[in-house]
Each structure stands twice: as structure tokens, then as C-alpha cells.
Write the C-alpha cells for this entry.
Amino acid sequence: MVAAVIFCVANFILVSWIFYTLMQSFINRKIKLIYKYIYQTKASKKAETYYKYILPRKTIDEVSEDVEKWALQRREEIETLRHNEVFRKEFLQNLAHEFKTPIFAIQGSLDTLLDGADKDEFTRKKFLENASRNTIRLVNLLRDLDEISNLESGLLTMNKENFIIQDLIKEVFDDMPLKGFPSGITYSIKKGCEKPIQVYADKEKIYQVLTNLVENATRYGNAGGQVIASIYSTDTQHVLIEISDNGMGISEKHLPRLFERFYRTDRGRSRNLGGTGLGLAICKHIIEAHGQGIHVRSTEGVGTTIGFTLDAKKES
């Protein structure tokens, strides 16, 4: 009787052990398939040996946690791809529109001249000026696209040096009337910010940034308005430069996308005021190429302030 009980117990233990071993093997095979699907990589013989004999086997809870992390990462990747696809489509639509407008204007002017309008001197001059103006717009558009391409690819070399930022701002202010902008807007450095501050940056590129920002402030400013530059030493290593206007301001919904290529808050009015729609995107790329950041604050009917940081003077 005792022998029979011992036999039954031993048999139960053996069957349980075999069942446990088979279940563990089955579960581990399934877990291995899960990880192969997650990582989608072909393991080497060395890696296979490591996974099979050396790597501590994970619990179901640990596997569940890994799968949840992978699923979250995949969702984020899918959202990023969707966002990029929307951005790509919108960019191509905007690019086509930006090219189409001046090309059609040039074509219309030339067709009119070819149809006989060239006989009248006044009409001929009018259509030639229109064709020339839109040709310049196309050239500027291609130049700005090339600029962004170089900035994004890292091909643009930065020639950094120490210079007084106030002197460069004054130079940009003095150049505004020469660019054909209407008079009546005043340009100044904010009171208390006149003390010379040196920054370490590419002077030519920062001139381009300041020019784009001041031109924007002028285009969208009020008649007889103000464009004011502010300069602050935020700490011993950085300088904050801000360009402010008291113009129409920008709706809060547009602020997150303001530095995107071709993004315009008011498409019709923006094109009528000139510009390629790439100025702020170029500013963003130049400042980021300096390892710094750019930001915007704006209130409709009050005005807009765009600021960026630069490295402070570097001691030789």
C-alpha cells in the first residue's frame, strides 16, 4: 500500500515536471517569437547562443512591460510619420503655389507683349517691369530654398567672431530705407540696452537673421509705428536679442507653426507685401546652427516680439 502511494506521488511529480518543462519551453518559444517581431533583426550565432543559454529568462510581467514600451514607441513613430506626411503634402502644395504665381505673371506679361502690346511704349514698359519684378521674386525664392537646403544639410560653414551686436543692429536699421520700405516707421534700440555687448557668432549670418526679422516687423507694422531692438546679457555665457513691433500681431493659433517653411498667417496679404515665406524658417535654421534657440511672443492688435540667443563674447 505504501509502495503504491509512493509510486503515485513519484508519478505525479514526474508528470508535473514534464508538463512544467514543456509549458516553459512552449512559452519561451512564443516569447522568442515576440521579441523577434519586436526587434525585427536577424541574430548572429553568438547572439542566439547568448539569448538561449546565458540571458536570464524574463517573467511574463517583464515581457508584458517590454511589449507595452514597444507598442508605445510604435504609436509615436506612426504619429510622427503621419505628421511628416501631412507636412510634406502641405509643403509641396505651398511650393507649387509659390512658383506658380510669379511664373504665370511672367508668362502673362510676355504673351501680352507678343500679342502686339509692345507697340505702345507705356504698355511695353509696364509689362516688362511686371515680368522683371516676378523674375526677381523667383530668383529670391530659389536663393532662399538653396539657403535652407545648405543649412539643413550642414554644408554651410560658420565663421564665428566677436562683434558688438548693437552696431550690427544699427547697420540693419540704416539699410531699411534703401530696401524700398515705406517711410514713417521708426527704428531704435530700447532705452537701457545701448551699452555695447559683444557676441560670438557668424556676423554675416546674424545680419541676415536681423534683416529678416526687421523686414517682417516693417511689413506687418502700423503706419508710423515702431520697431525696437532689445539686448540683454542673460548670464555670463549668453545674450538675448529681441526685435519688437507694435503692429497687427499674430493669433495664438499660428504661433507654433510660425517658423515653418511657407507658413503664412494671412496668405493673400502676405504675398501682396512681398517676401518668399521662407524668411523666418531661415532665421530658425541659422540660430539653431549656432546651437541656440529662437522664440516668438505676440498679441493681436498689440504687436509681436521675436527673440533669439547667441553666445556671449569668447575670450581668446
User: Anything to note?
Assistant: The two ends are 98 Å apart (CA to CA). The longest strand covers residues 303-312. The CA atoms of residues 109 and 128 lie 7 Å apart.
